[in-house]
Amino acid sequence: MARQKHVYDYVIDAHGTWFCEGNPVTDSDLFRMLSRSLFVKDGRYYVRCEGEVHPVRVADAPLWVRYVFLDEDSGGQIRAVHIQLEDGRREPLRPETLSVKEESALYCLATRRNLLARFAKPAYYELASRLTYEPETQAYVLTVAGRSYRLTPRT
Question: Which residues pair with 152 in a beta bridge?
Answer without folding.
Answer: 99
